[in-house]
Here is the input.
Amino acid sequence: MTPATVRTRSAGRAAVTIIGALAIYEVVARAGIFPAALLPTIPAVVKTLWTMLADGTMVKHAMSTLLRVLFGFSLAAALGLPLGILMARFRPVEQFFMPLVSVLMPIPSLAWVPVFILWFGLGNTTTVLVVFYAATFPMLLNTWSGVRSVNPLWLRAASAMGASGQSLFWKVIIPGASPFIITGLRQAFLRSWVAVVGAEIIAASAWGLGWVIFDAKEFLNADIMMASLAVIGIIGFFFERVVFGTAERATILKWGMVRAARG
Amino acid sequence: MQHIEVNHVSLVYDTPGGKVPGVDDVSFTMAPSEFLCLVGPSGCGKTTLLNIIAGFLSPVAGEIRIGGNAVNGYGQDRGIVFQDFAQLFPWRTALGNVTFGLEMKGVAKAEREAIALEQLKLVKLDKFAHSYPHHLSGGMQQRVAIARALAYNPAVLLMDEPFAALDALTRDDMQRLLADVWRETRKTVIYVTHNVAEAVFLADRVIVMTPHPGRVKAEVRISLPRPRDPLSVEFLEYQKALLRHLSEPSRADAQ
Here is the structure.
């Protein structure tokens, strides 16, 4: 099988799972167990989604959320990746930051929302900070583990061939740690995506996918909630499968540093 | 002039159980382009000695000179091949692995790729220049590792049981290939092995080491014409002689 047919096949299997789940939902929605206003059918949700896409509101909600994620995610990458590397390379840095990381990491990012609201008010600063908080630790911990688990044989071979300092770092340690770094980015994105919606529910004003869900509750607009949930899922799916999937295929899968599951 | 001088080199390992002597007062010299095998059971310090010569470990006593200069850490005058296939960089193609040393030297891209391709041709892998290591067999990966160690043209090649993890048939092929590569490149080679037949096939001279502590027990010069016939009577005589040295109790034990 060529990689292309493998990919078509896995896309086919993913479609089967999703269509199956949608079918079950539709059957339950039409069974009349719950009022249609609370559990709208798929055609009703699609119609609402279409209207919101057509008048541009859904795009604006999605873009607001996405920008908050990308901003917070970038900040987290700017801190988490270098700090993870430094902690893995220099013992004093590790000893200084590790206790702080161990204390802060178990605190759910959403628990900070009320505090951030007190400090920064409702709006972008608070939501971006929550994303930043959620994304930093997966990146930091994975990078830290990745740099520490670089095969010492690569370091020896590279040193014997004259690599040191910068060249050893960029040409051996970073690619050697890449399976962990990519996993860290991937986990960080998922955590940010989860966190941003929660943060928006509490702290956003007027725009964002989380905000629109919470706002729709006031008017019993279950179709708007469902449409927004679908958009959240679709964008998350796109990043998880397309963006990170492609990044993985172009690097660590191609290099054989991680292996695809069989069959 | 001697190319490599090992003068009274000793190394002690600090373990949780106390100090363990790894290598004890080892001395020998090598002529340029000589092929030397270090043979001995595990624990005899042969790999430790190779790592000292490579510059990965510092001896507690004694010194090593290569071309008259004392060894102090790594240097591009030595190429190294390890036993583990994982020594190659998985994120680089065969060609990318072989160019690494030249890249570190600052050789321009076109030139270093031309040189690397020559080296891959030497180990008969030029067709696989653009394959990633995980698509190559163990024997092929070790050949890439040899090409990589030769590419930046070190005068000395250090090899730590490079073929020990290969199956017997592939190992025979590899030994013949290495003998050819050595004949063409005329490197000074130190080759660590526990395989007596391999030592007799490859070496000009074999140093037999004994464990606890690692010491030189005997030196045997292999005066057989090349290419060598592993089934000849003389070849088997050399094997027997080496095995005798390995099975005899060392002088220290006998006292």
About this structure: The interface with chain A takes residues 54-56, 74, 76, 78-80, 82, 84, 86-87, 89-91, 100-101, 103-105, 132-135, 148, 152 of chain B (CB under 8 Å).
